[in-house]
UniProtKB/TrEMBL annotation:
SUPFAM superfamilies: Bacterial exopeptidase dimerisation domain, Zn-dependent exopeptidases. The keyword Metal-binding applies. Keywords: Hydrolase, Metal-binding, Protease, Zinc. It comes from Fragariocoptes setiger. The keyword Glycosyltransferase does not apply. The gene is PM20D1. Belongs to the peptidase M20A family. This is N-fatty-acyl-amino acid synthase/hydrolase PM20D1.
Amino acid sequence: MASLLGLVSLVTVSLVSVLVFRAAFLYKPLPAPKSCINMHNHDNISLSQDPQILKRFIGALNIPTISYKVHTYDAPEMTKFIEYIEKSYPAIHGSPLITREIVANYSLLYTVKGSDPKLRPYMLTSHIDVVPAVKELWDSNPFKAVIKDDGYIYARGTMDAKHLVMAIFEATEFMIKKGFKPRRTYYMAFGHDEEVLGLDGAQEIAKILKVRTKTYDKMEYVIDEGLVISETKFPGLPYNIGLIGVAEKGYLSVKVTATGAVGHGSMPPPMTAIAKLSTVLSRFHANVMPSFLGEGVEREMFEIFAAYASWPYKLIYSNFWFFKPIISYVMSNNPTLNALVRSTTAVTMVHGGTKENVLPDSAWAILNHRIHQAQSGKELMELDRQLINDDTITMELSSPINEPGPVSPYCDDCSGYQTIKHSLLQVFPDTVVVPSIFLAATDSKWYTNLTDSIYRFSAISVELEEMKCFHGHNERLSVKNYEKLINFYHHLIINSDEPILNYKSKQHDEL
Ligand SMILES: CCCCCCCC/C=C\CCCCCCCC(=O)NCC(=O)O
Ligand SMILES: [Zn+2]
Ligand SMILES: [Zn+2]
């Protein structure tokens, strides 16, 4: 007995020593994060100095460029939006350096010509369409933007994603007016049907650019809508967290149909199409997919956390291999963090009867899956089949399968990642920047042939709680965030002109 106790004590002491050693020596504490690139000697763009900037944003939000389903969107509003952009940005549309192409009738592709053809171009991208909004559920009209006393602009598209479209235009207009001539060519691309898979817009833009980029080999990088800066702090980390999406989850929608006896609502049989379907659907929320925490880029995320965290959290983040089950459990209890670690299933549409006293012969539902990098669409279909476990229920694809995309590089010398990171830090200092997986789908999935370096990042800082505003009610963005977003692109455009820097050694020199 005594020797057993001795052995247990020895193992415990050794384990604790390993955990403490790793925390103390492998992840040396780092000072507050800041950019290694000195602030450029240029003006910041200020909303108080130019009130027209906000007016232009509000005007763009008030055009209901809604996508409904694949190939179906409000075309006249899209045309109105294009005209609005042309009218709002005279310097861009009059510049000899800039050409505009209207792709597939409603998407926009701009080329801002750089002076050095040897530099590979990069691309700033977003989308002009928005999802529908149920007016009655909002506190104000979703297509009549208002700035409220809390300092927020409320309207559909403020977070997803007209803020990016307009901020890219504002930064470019500002710079062109000041006589800026880029060295590196850049594209500005705005699809018109991103919310319904981007088949008409971004897919066509990609085809055009594919022909062009042959001349340059591949693009330097592409930045699209994506993850944000989280103001919600991680335990033990006193900083905001800037998450750059280096990969995108896959996308798959499955239509599940159950059939049953038709008849009169007054004499229901024990099982009907709707009863069968609802039994099956409830299983999808009771049985979540397995956690893959640690098999994706989150491992690097926790290693970076380890360097900035205070004790005792430093001990946890430094020893991911040991604390993984606890971290996974905690993350699984928050919908946003849960989506980082596993494939997800959401039942997003259900359709059954058409008359209140008639038993319908069939009922269907859509399972909307987001596929983690560690799984495939085929695997998820198989898991669905096992969970349904009923041969009378049919399953068919209701969207093409988009497998999870490749992981873009995020090393110390990866110019696209580092240029975005340092532009972020110039505008949002004291932010810990980490690579992460983007939870949803973007138009950038069409651009994978154009570059190996695609980053999904929206430079706004928000609380995790605000994630429900994406596609939800009372979507909003603070005026302060909009100003910073414009300045982020302003910095990004300037920094992208620099030759590829050795960011790592520079960082050490200047810290
Ligand atoms: C320390 C970890 C904190 C994690 C914070 C995660 C922050 C998540 C940030 C953004 C999520 C945005 C989701 C909105 C997606 C918008 C794109 C879209 O609608 N695409 C279409 C689609 O996917 O259906
Ligand atoms: Zn979007
Ligand atoms: Zn969206």
